[in-house]
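Dear support,

Our group has been running a series of protein-ligand predictions, and this particular one with NAP is the one our PI (initials K.S.) wants archived with full inputs and outputs. We had some confusion internally about which version of the output was final, so please treat the block below as the authoritative record. The input we submitted was:
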Amino acid sequence: MMKVALVTGGNRGIGKEIVRKLALDGYRVILTSRLVCNSFDFFSRAKLFDLGLSNIDVHPLDLRCKESISGLRETVEMQYGRLDVLVQNAAVSGGGNVKRDFVGDMLKTNFWGPSCLMKEFYELLGDCSRVVFMSSMVSMRILTNARHPLVYEIGQNNTHLTERRLEELAETYTNNYESDKNLPRSCYGVSKILINGLARVYAEKARKDGKNMLVNSCCPGFVKTDMNKGNPNAKKLPVEGAKLPFYLATLPESCRLTGAYLSDA
Ligand SMILES: NC(=O)c1ccc[n+]([C@@H]2O[C@H](COP(=O)([O-])OP(=O)(O)OC[C@H]3O[C@@H](n4cnc5c(N)ncnc54)[C@H](OP(=O)(O)O)[C@@H]3O)[C@@H](O)[C@H]2O)c1
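Confirmed final output from the archive:
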């Protein structure tokens, strides 16, 4: 039976390459995108068939919208019955010292959306499934440099961290961003330490539930995509950036790596 993989933000950048690699590897891939029409243009039917890739389906998903997430879960449940791989790739970036509303918006896409997606899809993820959260080296920089208890708590590597607590910490960060100047200014970096935390929480949950589901987060390196428009330091091509997430998405059955953060930087 063909394994089923879902990739968020699969229409461009690193996500598009992860979709391509999984499809070439024989997965039925659910490419999700906010702009389904654009995705169809990009992966035009003709191109897919040229590559022999008739195994990519396109579905709409906007991570800022709960209805969009639950709608996708219903579609996947009805059409595929289960998921073997979930790559939480979609995200937005943004600079430091922004307004509270910007922080809230970014966390909607980079933390609340992925968290909601995990809640919706956890039961659909099979016993030997693989979940990959796309994080960033910026998360490590935040952990090394920030001297704030909130950062320590998100970054702690213990089994007591819960999803509820992560949500409280995300709320506190957003609410206090303007008043507490000791909080890290990079909300992108904070969104990525929250994502690493989410990976650890779900790795532990799966372990407790007796599932051999492996959940990890990773940094793809500094990749030349729309996210890094014009940055000369972003030298890697998306195809190279896709290597580590693809590796984690296809960990062999005997593998026990879970709750880890890996970097290809
Ligand atoms: N590039 C790097 O150097 C680098 C380094 C470290 C980590 N990362 C991480 O790698 C991942 C992919 O980054 P990338 O460089 O490929 O970025 P990208 O080219 O900007 O692509 C981002 C993707 O996320 C999607 N997206 C944004 N907001 C969304 C929303 N609300 N709902 C659903 N999808 C949404 C975008 O869809 P639309 O087309 O609809 O906007 C797009 O498909 C991200 O998690 C990023 O943080 C990248």
